Every structure is written in structure tokens, then in C-alpha cells.
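Now for my pick.
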Amino acid sequence: MPRSQPQMDQTTFEVFPVGATPDDVLDAMAWLTLDLDHELGADDPPRAHADVRSYYALGWGRPWQQVNLVARRDGQPVGFGSASVDPAHNPGNLWIHAYVAPPHRRVGIGRAIVARLLQHRAADAPVTSVGFCLRASAPAARPLVERVERDWGVAAGIVERKSRLDLAAWSAERAASELAERRPQAGDVRLVFFAMDDHPGPETGFDLAGYLDAINEIETLMPMEGLEQEPERFDAERLADQVRRQRQRGRVLWSVVAIDGASGDCLGYSTINFRPDDPVLVSQWGTGVVRRAQGRGLGKLLKLAMLEKLLREVPGARYVETSNAGSNAAMIGINTDLGFREHFIERCYQMPVGALCGRLGIEAPGDGG
């Protein structure tokens, strides 16, 4: 039975699909997210309000289905939530994020946010598991991590190591020198750079179908650790949608690919994402090498090539941030060699929906009759 909810005064909850969320809700979610960043010590450098707002406005793109929620107490925004599901690859796995401002905690608002997100999704399709992530290394998050792991007995499905590279330690000349030293080990490969909304022509050896094949193979090689999650797949339409959404956010995607000199196959790639008008913090989206080309140093070669281009063409860039599964020793080793240092640890969990609802004392979707 659900436990009784403390009095929440005049608390209201509104849910909107991504792409149709009102401006005032997006503004509130962005400001609350920046408050959360500050509480977790994640605001050095601080994110721009407009950038966070656009994240909630545009979402991740197809095939993901996403909703935003705002909680208002006596008319004022005091919390928010979001829920995301990939109906193409993992239709029963719902990923949620919820936050309540400190003065309004311990009155049941957080539980109510989770309950409404679950109910909203369950109205369209069954939910079998719920995933959520906690910034475990932040002091403010440790009590919740301890509650989940010690009191609930739930182990992290995956531990993500978030690391950061200070570009002050590098120069374009140093990157070019190290790149030249590593090229012989990689064998006969051609490196091709491009902005992802402007694919290179056939004279470069770039082939979109081959690029997508490499992306999809590398997706299957990424460690999932204990998560019950199928790898995603990309096609040309999905890739174009992703790039378009980033452009709408004022962000660009750059990629460098390694093309085999003999076969013309795409052997690997490295992609970054940043705001040209505010490039201080660059996001490393992904670096990977297909299985048959591993062991030749291509991963580090691709990262060095992108690093040189970034240093030469984006002088305002200060940091590069990346994320790796804690078990991905090979990529963590490459990043450590380049100077990346651990910035924080994020622990992600998956629970059967009934077990989560039982722990929170809320009604499981479909139990209301």
C-alpha cells in the first residue's frame, strides 16, 4: 500500500512533451537545473541558461520519446522532472530525472514527480524498469546514493567516470608532434575532418553508409556493465535529426574519421560538441574503433587529431569533458595519457518498476484499478 503523502499545500504538476513545452516551463526547468549544478558543485564553469533551456526544449531526437514536468507550489516552480524512453530499442526502460529545490523537500514532491512521470508513460505503453543516475562523488548526493545502495540494496548498473582535460596544458604544436609520432603505428589510414552538417565529398574517401556501419558496430562494443539495455542504432535520418537539433541549440558537431587506405572502410571516429559563441567547455561525444582495427593506436590518433584541430581553430576552448564506463580501461588509459583527470563519478541504476514504487511508497502504474 502507498504510504500517506505529507501535505503539499497547493502543489500542481504539469507534464508536456518535448517539442511542445511552454516557454515559462522551459525557463523554470533551466533555472532549477542551474541551481542543481551549484548544489552539486558542477558549475565551474557555469552553463548558460539558454543552453540548458534548449536541451529541454529540443531533447535527444528520434527515436526517443521524452516529456518534461514542472512542479509548482503556490504557483511558484519548486521542482521538475523529465522522462525518456527509446521505443525502438528499449521500449520498457524508462529513464527519469527529478529535482526539488531544497526549501521544498521532504513533503512528498519528489515522489509525486516520479509517480506522475511513470503514470504518463504507462498510459501509452508498459513500463518494466526505471533508470536514474546520481552524481555519486558530490557530497550533496551521497545521502541519496547511500539510501539506494545500502538501504534499498540496489547496486549500480553502470559507473560512469566523468573526466576533464585542461587545454592550458596543450598547444596545437604539441598535438601535431604527437600525432606525427603515432601515425606509423596506425598503418595506412586517412584522417578526414568534417562538421557533421556538411559531410565531405567522395573524393575524400568518406562514405556515409560506411560511417554509419562503424557507428553501429562501435555502439555494440561500448560497455553496458550491469545495465539491461540494447545498443542503439543510427541511420542517416536519425543522424541528420541529431545534427539539426544541435544546430537549433546553437551548437556544432565536429567529427574526424579514420579511413582505411586499402579498403576505404571507416575504421573509427571521434566527435565533439560545443557552442561556437561560448566554447569554454567542449563535450567529447564519442570515440571508437571497429573491432578489426583495434590494437593499432587509432583511438589515441583520432583524439590527438581532433585535439590539434580544436586548439588551432577554437581559441576560446578551455576544457574538454568526456565520460567513460568505469570498466572501459582502454579508453580511460588513452584519456589519462592525454591528461584527462577524473572530475566526478556518476552511478546509474535500474530497478523493476514495482520495486521502485514500493521503495518510494507510490502506486505502481496500472495498480489504481
Summary: The radius of gyration is 22 Å. The chain is about 35% helix and 30% strand. The first strand starts at residue 11 and ends at 17. The first helix runs from residue 23 to 39.
